## 1
Amino acid sequence: MKISSLTLTNFRNYESLKVDFSDKINVFIGKNAQGKTNLLESIFYCCIGKSFKSIKDKDLIRFGCEEGYINLKAERKYRELKIEVKLSKSHKKTILINSLPIRRIGELIGEINVVFFSPNELKLVRESPDERRKFMDIDISQTNKRYFYNLSRYEKILANRNKLLKTSDNLEYVKETIDIWDRALVQTAQKIAFERKKFIEEIMPYTEKAQTYLSGGKEKIELNYACGCGVKLDEKFEENMDKLLKKNIEKDFKLGYTTIGVHRDDIDIFLNDVEVKNFGSQGQQRTVALSLKLAELESMFNRTGEYPILMLDDVFSELDAERQARLLKFVDRTQTFITCTDDKKITGKVFEIASGKIIKQN
């Protein structure tokens, strides 16, 4: 899986850009706020259908312009791809795959698989469970469209159940009418929970390998899937979750939302038998987050037979020389995009960025 070229028009601080990439390592260097991360963002958008930042689509359009455009060309094992994104401040975005418009983001996800890492990804380890659920969901969805569908379905069912709990002032009425949402919720939750558990079991050996490599064998990592449904993942999952929903109905009614379900899932992460989130150092948390991302490379390859695109945004400023060298050696099997303030003596195709332009490349 390789990205061959990228064309931008009025995207972020780029008025116009056309660039061809190396199949191996591509390095974007330059001072801060020149547009290095914006290039990664445009590529990521073509893979996932949204930015890795929590912003509105219209904010991606160059200041003072009404429309923006991304054109990305890529090669997979058996076919070529062209992804086009048309952004507008007055209309909904349009995404085309090989010149054919798509109706849902689910049609785009999985066409080009990607793994993104930046220093901000520390939140994956030390912040709320939302970040760890997002990590699981983005990864699994890229190779399992059914999972993406079930996730979207679950969120709609949950929203309807919560609306009933929040807007009704009659508990008996809620008890009489909520069963339709409960049945749908437990059926969909079961499918999501089993996929997440399988994912954690799949990436565990790869994470362990990456953590051992990056730490020089000093740290042992352990991952556990923590299901928020309050029941065991066995053949009686749906039956037991349904019973628990009914048991909690008065509590849910009082609070106005559903207190159990896969929307409360988490990943427990331990390093040398100590919980990393609360007790790990920042250096350990950073290495763990990076190990999880590197594990994604191997697990996606295991599922698809192709390595995903890897993006490392300002990661090398956070690593010492030894870990920089270890990281580069670890990722030499995949096409990689790196941003940094200088080339860090990285071997690859180097692009120097200034004010939304490539001023030099070699």
## 2
Amino acid sequence: MRNDTKKKKPWIYISNRAFVLVFLMLAFFVLQTFIQCILFFRDEAPFWQVVAFLIMTMGFTTVFLVFIVRPYQRNQMMMQRILDGYILPDSSLFEKALLTPSMEAEIERLEQVLKSPEMMDLNKRQAQYLALQNQINPHFLYNTLESIRGEALIAGMDNIADMTEALAKFFRYTITKVENLVSVEEELDNCETYFLIQKYRFGSRLQLHILCEEESKESIMNCRIPKLTLQPILENSIIHGTELKIGTGNLTIQFEQTDKRLVIRISDDGVGMDEQTLAKLNRQLGRGTKALTDKEEKKGGIALVNVNNRIHLLFGEEYGMHVYSIKDKGTDVEVTLPIVTM
């Protein structure tokens, strides 16, 4: 640890010196422009000389802000996110122009260490430990729900017993199952459990349809996707779509498979959204993992941005979701994922 600390300090010092040096050069140009203005008003310098220094100052200021200040701030933000515990971003996202060879080598070495099998194994063990620790409270929850179900069956309240059983099954999947990736079949089972609970609230007003080509159904069901990808989108479609419309609401989950991608479309025939709201939502989704720093309040369940960010973190920025919507017609959420099998 002492050796690492000694290596980092000189390079931070040199980087700051370079930053200050460029800033002093900018200050020199500003000072010279001010002096030329004074000389011009005293008729001791031609007008073109004042204009030339002014243009040079403005140009140097623009270059300073665009090519030095902003990249420097971006690098600082990336390093701060690493210190805050976020996953190490791709080293290509750092501004190479501001990295010394030593700093670049340190970042590459850090990337190798954090992505090494030993570190992956350590993270897995930590996750398993936390999962075992967090199972203490869920067991109390499951036992309580089972007691409620038993009392409901004794009282002849079959609907309450079925609802309690569905709720316990939903919580088991959500809380106890700790894997990052689950099969499409498991995720669909959880969606159907969630939908069953919602049916007790909405009755026949809500209908769920699952569409998948028969010849590719087995292959699609075995594909691995991030846990809790579909249910939050389904919940969002109910809360912001079908719940707000008059009459029956239809929800559809459709699967399509290509050679390299799995495309899932969750559709509703609810109230939809206007163009401005749709554009704002897609901008949030398009920001990728940068949206992790958003301070906006998310109301109810897991937000779409959360699901999208988890997809980006697991598979990269080329995958994720996009929303299509027409006011008073409905909304489609398209999720694109790589083909990952068991």
## 3
Amino acid sequence: MKKIIALLLIPVLTAFCFTVSAGAVPAEDPIDIYKQDIVFTNSLAFTEPVIYYQPYSRMLSDEWDSAPMVYCQYNNYGEGMYYFNFPDAQTYHFYISDAAADQRTELLTRQQNDTLELFLYGDLNADGYYNVVVRHVNSENLIVLDNTGDTLSDDIVICCHCIDPFTGDGSDIRAKMERIGDNDFGEGRYRFTVPNGTQSFYFTDRKKRTEEIDFSGSVWLYLPGDHNADGKYKVYDVNWAGGPDPIWSMGPSHTIFDRLNEEYVSVYTYDVDPENVFWADFFYLYDELYEHRDSSGDVDWVLIQAETFTAPDVIYYGLIGNRFVYRPTPSSPFESGYGVYDVKQDIFVPITSNAESHYKGLTRVLDKVVPGRLLGDLDGDDSITVIDVTILQRCEAKMRDYPENDTLTYPYGKIRYYSDFNRDGERDIIDATAIQRWLANV
């Protein structure tokens, strides 16, 4: 009888111990996906995902910081979800690898203050890295629409399809867009902040509708009135030329891209015959290559590149930073194709107009992003280092000859040699000293 009682007590005590044990450890609060910088769905089962990252200011150097990603939970498909928060709010390049570094994703960029959801579907790019589907999850999530040609009536509704990333539950949201005024042609401009979790959306005036668009972050769109194969109105992205997501204001100019095309009009003309002239306005191909911040952390100038699709009609040859550039230059608001947008003065400054002396750090940025050959690069590794100083010193000591390709194809002012770092028309030991001082930031 005692044995029977004892056997009956065992499961009771076990259940009691389990209850006490479970109650002794409070349940963790679920991770809020919208408060992390990056959330990574590990659909390929990377072993212990690791993120490699570097600030945008390093311009893709070999110096990468790394950290293990933090596990969140499993989604409804049994795939692990991980998150990572960057050390600060600046822009970063990054990629994700497994712990053994046998597999990795393509290189990605996270703009400051962006929240990104990353998904892998198993396909590889040309470099053998996994492609990543990126969804932007921002507090803004702002969509601005220009009703070009009054394509829709003045009662525009946006229809969003949203998915909860944790549960996979879907929902549809319909809401009237806010009219915020007219564009330069008197056509209505509308805005709406879509909810987090938005996967796709379209516009309608309840009689006509547009095609469906995949949501990938804040965007400015317009409707020219043409149809796709299904008879729905096509929607176009004004910021098609690239660069970070636009930051919107209520003023007449919303982005640097807008300002550029408002102040510089690119007109291409072509004589079909003497009595028939074809002409068209072109948007500039535009990219923001670098943002500089002042001591308060505010952007004070931006390095930009701008040119059009038109055929090259000018060959640009000159010195940009420490680089000699020789390339065809299509129509551009700047002679070299590069310029600075001075945020505080609200002006554009061509690189060739002595801009380097006014903007701290500009020359070193140009040395990294502009194609061409660096002045002072004697060993041909596309950088200026102490090795170049050593080569120059040995050449001056007659211990070796100057490289055969040290002479410029076309002289530029006084400069005839790539080794002429101080630009006085001669290559000598003074150039070695000039490089040393430049390396020491003197």
## 4
Amino acid sequence: MASMMVKNKIYHLSTCSTCQRIIKSLNNGEGFVLQDIKTQPITATQLDEMHRLTGSYEKLFSRRAMKYRGWGLHE
């Protein structure tokens, strides 16, 4: 079965100022499908597809994020 990947998709948090700045710099997200992961969580299928594209789950997370450290993932 062929992959149904959307190439121009941005997973973001609408409350994140960094995400807002990046989207704004990309012509307010024009030409992209925006998915606010707070209101529409990432599915297992989407996560698997991102893993396939990056080759690593670790690359999908920001090591600077407060929750990353809060959960002790940095150790």
